Every structure is written in structure tokens, then in C-alpha cells.
Amino acid sequence: MAHELPFIAAIDEAIRLEMERDDTVLYFGQNMATTENEPYVDAFGKDRVRVTPISETAEIGMAIGAAMAGFRPVVELYMAEFMLVAMDQVINEAPRFRAMSGGQVKVPLVLKAGFGFTAGWAGQHTGTIGALFMGVPGLKVVMPPTAADAKGLMATAIRDDNPVVYLHHYLLTLEHGEVPDGEYLVPFGKAAIRREGGDVTIVATGWTVDRALGAAERLAAEGIQAEVIDPRTLAPLDTQTILESVDKTGRLVLVDQATRHASVSTVIAGEVAEHGFSSLKAPIVQVTALDATIPYSEPLEAFVMPNEDKIVAAVQGVLGSAPVTA
Amino acid sequence: MVPPPLGGEQALRLLATMWRIRLFEEQVSLLKRADQVHGLIHSSAGQEGVAAAVCSQLRDADVVYSGDRAHGHSIAKGAPLERVMAELMGRDGGLCRGLGGSMHLVDLEHGFLGATGVVGGNIPIALGSALAARLRGEDTVAVVFFGDGAVQAGHFNETVNLAALWRLPIILVCENNGFAEFTPRSAHTIVERVSDVVAPYGVERATVDGNDAVAVWDAFGRYLASARAGGGPFLLECLTHRLGGHYEGDPGTYREALDAADWQEKDPILRLQRHGIAQRWFEADRPAVLEAEAAEAVEQAVRFGRESPFPPLELIEGLVYADG
């Protein structure tokens, strides 16, 4: 059975279910236990649900210490960029402890943050910065595109024994979707094939998954069948599913809202160039945000972002540039 | 609550620990010059009084964190000497199987949750240990050692604020040796005493002579008893002296060395020995026995390290993620 929920409520449902199931799950953040999250306090008490000062370093550091002591903290960071204030904790402490201790400790925690608020939020609240973290050994990075995945990946993140950066796209906040009832887990490292097709592989993440599906619909009207793959987790990354698709289609378009040199698409391009080169009938094309700070002004903001038109043009390009085959 | 004052038995335990740390550090210094330990090494020689007087009052379940100058703290908390030495040599028999090294020592079994190479980077992590103890209703405490250089960083201030706000059982132990890496404290801040920095938060605090193990024992013991009874947080500033440079090989041109006679006065080991003999806690020839035992233990540690194999290459991939 399933029910319909907005994306943000699906995340909430997963956290509540996990907090009911496991009393070592803690939840803290800067606006917890004030107004809008009051029900959490009612349900789980002020020991487990805590409001913190605007001290990202202390919040995340504290989560690491509590995690090593056997708790499973979820830190509500609101904006992915706020993690940048605490880069030492996110990159140099949380994911290093296990390896540096020779495996003596584990650090199960979730850093929950929204990202990509390209609705006039300008340069510091709009970044798609997940790929900055996917290259850090020991960190897992999650980017759900649907309400169902938002729920299932959060539950998996809380149960995971590693630090997980859980990134939800702010433009998806109120998107509704069917969400399975009760306990629902989506495994990490397993890409979803959102649409099947034999002519071209499009890989997209987060908010761009829907753009890619929209582009695929338009391309279908031209007789082009695009396969749309959504990795769902950036680390671990399911390159196998992508390579299998490219083996079938011979063409790859990568869509990413991140700036190119800090994007998942660049990492995937490298993997496919190395491991899938013999399958390729055309160069890999990336449709990313321009390498620029996201501007405030609406037409300029739209200009730097990937969109359906750019994806359609890229697919037409890789098909047009393909060598004639028998 | 007033903890028991330092007496004969504890003083001998402290001295044994301090000799082990001193001779260990001297041996590491020699091994570094002979290229038998790998990487960046920060010696704690000269600061043994703080490590011994603090850690010997703790249980395994109390969690200790330290910075890059961590050998002494790990040894004082109970880490086996030979496993610390093997770690510095990058061997499989090391505390962290050779994956952490000098700046990232961890000994979970003895509650040493580790060193960090980023100055003060784990001060906020100690908050989590203290919170965990509080949530479970345990009387364990979190202790974090750091140098005076860490106090000017944001993470220190964020930690103090939150620890004070939630009254967590955490004891911040600052080893103020007057130098933040290569730079005197006066070049970094106008606040002379670290204990003054936390004053607005109402944190109980004190500054003691860190080379006087008796003074450290008494001050820390009071805070520990109070933290176990539900109090906290606390800050203990220990004025001490780093015998060597910032790291092994540091020429130390930025400061004047103490002359030998001055050091004889300040050396925390010799001071406690003189004090113990004067107090008739032990016979005058007893410290030499402890020194000899420590020398033997260090020799044994070096043998253990040399005989331990390098870790297998397969270890690396298996430690990226925790499973299950």
C-alpha cells in the first residue's frame, strides 16, 4: 500500500519511523523544538530532539562524538552550504575516524540539508554541492529525486553505519508522490532506471531527473528513445548500471545542476570513458550548470542552469555526430 | 566533593607513567632521526605532568581526546607502550594497525578516542561523548586536551557555548606551553590566560602550574568529582613547557631554550620526585627503579614495533566504510 505525500513530508515520515523504531536516533538542529518541529518534541522528548545554536561545527562535531558512543544522530542543517562552515568536521573528522583508527570505531550519522534553491536565492543558497563530498572516502552521499526515494533513502541513511550526507533538492520540497506505507528502505549504490530506451543514455540526478524525463518525452515524439538513469546515491555510485546502459545505447548525455568541474557528471564521464570506451559511438556530452556563481536576476539564473531544451539539443547532438552504422 | 589528595601509591604511579612518556618520547626522537618512525612527529616531552595527573584519575569508560601532541596522553590513558610505538612505525601491531600514526592515535578499549591533526578539530566531538553519557545517565566524563593555540579557533568557542548551555560533563584541559606551533601566544591574542576566555559562560575554571603534578592532580580531581556528580563543564589551564620544538626536527629558532639549571627546577618528573621524597611518600632510591623499568619497557616497545609486520594492503579498502 502507498499514500501520497509531498517530498518534504516523506523525509519527515522516515525520520519519525526510525525514531520510533530505534531510541538511539537523535535529531538536532537550529530551529528544532521551537515552533514548526514541536511535534517531534512531543513524540520523542527534549533529550532526543534538541535545538542547537548556529554553530555548525559544534553540531556536527557533537554528532560525531555521540555516534562513536553508539547513538545515531540526524543533524538538520537546512542549507547544504551551511555544511561548508564546518568542513573540518564533515570532511576531515567524521569520515576519517574509522580508517584512521584502523577500524576501531564507526560513525553512523546523517547530515540532512537542502540544496539547489534556484528560485532567486542567489549565490550562497543555490549550489549543487553534493559532488564536493562524493570524493571523500568514508562519506556516503545521497540525493533523492522522488518522494518515495526521499523516504526510503532517509531510512537507509539512518540505519547506515557511516556518515551520510543526505541532500534534498529545495525545488522538489512540495512535489507530491506516491510513498510506500510503513517501513520502506531504498538501498544505497543502486541506480534507478526511470525510463527505458535504446538510442541514448541520459544520466541525471536530483531535480534534473524530471528535466531529463521531460526531454525524453519530447525526443520520443521525434522517434528517439532515451534511457534515463538516476544514480540516487552519488557515493557509493552505481557505475555498473550506467555502463550496461551505454553498452546498449552507445551514447551518453550527462545532466547535472552542479558546475561542471564539481559535478557528478564529470566523475561519470571519466568512468565511462575508461571502462565503456569501446561501447561509445559518439563523444560523451555533459549538460551542467555553467561554471559561474548562480546569479540572482531571473533570466540570468535560468541561463546558467541546465534545462529541457539544453538536454534535447545535447541528445540531438550526440545522435547527429554518431558515425553511420549498418 | 573533595577527591583524595595525592599520596605515595598514586605518586609512584604518576612517576612511572611520566618516566614511560619521557623515555618513550626521547626514543621516538632518536628513531625519527634514524628514519625508523615515519611522518610528522610532535613530542610531548616536558609536558608529562599534565597527562599523568589527569589520565591516572580516569576510568577506561571516560573518554579522552587529544591533539597532535598526543603520545603522552594515550600512554597515560592506558594505551600499551608497544602498540603506540608500533603505530608510529606504521606496523600492523600498532593501535590503529598503522593507519593513523602519531597524529591520529586511537585506543577505543582504553577510552582514548583519539588525536586529531587539525588543531582543536575534535574539541566539539567531545561534546558528543559528554552528551551520550548524560543521555544514558552514566557518570562518565569527556576530557579533551588541546594547546593554547586552539583557543582562538571558532570550534573552541562553539564548544564552550554549547557545553555551558547544556551543562555537559566535559573537562577542557588546556596545555598552555606559550607557543601556538611556532608563534608566541602574545602574537595571536591579547588574552593572556586561557581560563579568562571562558569567563562569560560561567564555566568553572582555574589556571595551575602544569609542571606541578600535585597541583594538576588536585585541581583536576575536584572538577572530575563534580562532573561525575552531574556538574560541568570545566576548564583547567595548565601552564607548561614544551621541551623540544613544535615537531621533531624543528630548529626552534623562534624561542630561547631554557638552561639546564632552570629545567631542573621546572621538570615535572624531578619536581614530583623531590616532593615525594620530602613528603616521605617513598624512599629516595625508588624513582631510579621506576626510570629503569620505563627504559626496559621502551626498549621492549621498540623490539615489538620492529618485529611487527607492515599492515596488509587489503586493509585499506575494507576500512573505507563500516559494514552492517
Characteristic terms for this protein:
heterodimer, A: 326 residues, alpha/beta, Rossmann fold, 2 domains, five-stranded mixed β-sheet, globular, B: alpha/beta, 43% helix
Would you write up a description of this structure?
Chain A has 326 residues and is α/β, with parallel strands linked by helices. Chain A contains 12 helices and 14 strands. In chain A, the strands form 3 sheets. A 7-stranded mixed sheet of chain A has the order 3-2-4-5-7-6-12, sandwiched between helices. Chain A is globular and about 60 Å long. Chain A starts with a strand and ends in a 6-residue tail after the last helix. The model of chain A is unreliable at 322-326 (pLDDT under 50). Chain B has 324 residues and is of the alpha/beta class. Chain B has a single domain (8-250, 257-306), classed as Rossmann fold. In chain B, the strands form 2 sheets. In chain B, strands 2-1-3-4-8-7 form a 6-stranded parallel sheet, sandwiched between helices. In chain B, strands 5-6 form a two-stranded antiparallel sheet. At the A-B interface, helix 3, helix 4 and helix 5 of A face helix 5, helix 6 and helix 12 of B.
Short description, anyone?
The complex is a heterodimer of chains A (326) and B (324). Chain A is α/β, with parallel strands linked by helices and 326 residues long.
Low-confidence stretches of chain B: none
Q: Give the proportion of residues in helices of chain B.
A: 40-55%
Low-confidence stretches of chain A: 322-326
Helix content of chain A: 25-40%
Q: Termini distance of chain B?
A: 44 Å
Structural class by sheet pairing and helices of chain B: alpha/beta
> Kindly, what is the distance between the CA atoms of the first and last residues of chain A, rounded to a whole number of angstroms?
48 Å
